[in-house]
Amino acid sequence: MSTRALLAFLAVCAVIGLLAFGLLNKGEAKIAVGDPAPDKVLPVLGGPGQGSIAEYRGRWVLVNLWASWCIPCRQEAPALDRFAREFRGRDVTVLGINVQDNSDDALAFLRENDVRYPQLRSIGDERSAAFGSTGVPENFLVNPKGRLVLIWRGPVDREFLEEQVVPIVAGRS
Amino acid sequence: MLALAAPALAATPKTSVSTIEGEVMCPICGTLLELAESPQAQRERVLVKRLVAEGKSESEVKDALVAQYGTAVLALPQGSGFDLSAYVVPVIAFIVAAIALALGVLRWRRASRPPPPSSDATQGPRGEDAERLEADLARYDL
After folding, report:
1. B131 exposure class (CB count in 10 Å sphere: 0-12, 13-18, 19+)
2. B62 contacts in A (CB within 8 Å)?
3. Do both A18 and A35 map to the same domain?
4. Are residues A120 and A96 in the same domain?
5. What is the full DSSP assignment across B25-70?
6. Model confidence at B13, in pLDDT bands (50, 70, 90)?
7. Tell me, what's the pLDDT at A104?
8. Which residues of B touch A102 (CB under 8 A)?
9. Do residues A161 and A79 both lie within one domain?
10. Contacts of residue A125 in chain B, CB cutoff 8 Å?
């Protein structure tokens, strides 16, 4: 192979490599029931310290991705908070992860909706990308071993929680 | 009087909302903030207006937006890490293309130039040829 052909080949490989790198970086994660829950240590929303899903190992965790500008998030918040209070003593935690939001708006949202379950904050869309998220709200039920047992890409309400989530966490399904 | 003037001075805008809107993204929409009308963009715009009204400079506003929304909020890539390639690669590509073009032009000019005259031609005919040439010139009285 001549030097010129080798250089051309390397140039083409470099361009293809760059394109592949860009596509892989943009690609959203694909997660499914049975997979380990995507996890990372994140700052606590509005407070000092950090937290992660792994901290709740041994408990059921209903992870709720939300943003203050999202109207369906506002609609589902009371049902989630009620569920969190009802099941707090039964090894179930609702964990909010605020995404694509600014913290002042997020804290105002929590005050207005009297939401009291724990909250983490993801800056940028890294967390929502890790969950393969296409928008907010999205909800993920993680079992005590840290694996996903339910993925719901949309808002939840009281009926959904009673029919889909409660049977799982109560061991009835 | 001084106490009243101090907050007013502190709130003097150092940049404009429209300038910032043209240089940052609505991360959810994937477009410039000035073109976005989504609920997230509206909240981001409110934050920009507040920061500008507080007298923050352009870079301070952008830093605050990055702290809230991540680096994806910047319309232009950062000048460090992998993002640096967005600035370096075009410059390198331009230099390589310029060198390739210059080499191509040199080669083309060399190929189209007439071959240099041989030493025989510059020195004129010799021997029998010179004698015949002289005879011919004499014959035609040139």
Report:
1. exposed
2. none
3. no
4. yes
5. EETTTTEEGGG--SHHHHHHHHHHHHHHHTT--HHHHHHHHHHHH-
6. confident
7. 94
8. 43-44, 47, 68-69
9. yes
10. 27-28, 70, 72
* A81 and A10 assigned to the same domain: no
In this model, does residue B10 exceed pLDDT 60? no
Task: Judge if A127 and A116 occupy the same domain.
Answer: yes
**CATH number for position A90:** 3.40.30.10
Task: Average the pLDDT over each of B34-48, B70-84, B85-99 and give the range with the smallest value.
Answer: B70-84
| Domain match, A64 and A135 both | yes
Gap between the Cα atoms of A54 and A57, Å rounded: 5
Report yes or no: A95 and A53 within 8 Å, Cβ to Cβ.
Answer: yes
Specify whether A137 is located in the same domain as A109: yes
Residue A13 belongs to what domain range? 1-29
Average pLDDT for runs of 10 along chain A of length 173: 79 84 67 93 92 95 96 96 94 95 95 95 77 90 96 96 95 68
Task: Return residues 43-72 of A near B (CB < 8 Å).
Answer: 67-71
A102, B43: Cβ pair inside 8 Å? yes
Tokens of A162: 């009673």
Give the helix/strand (H/E) hosting A119: strand A119-122
Total domain count, chain A: 2
Q: What value of ipTM does the predicted structure carry?
A: 0.73
| Amino acid found at A32 | A
Question: A165 and A84 in one domain?
Answer: yes
Residue B116 has pLDDT above 60, yes or no: yes
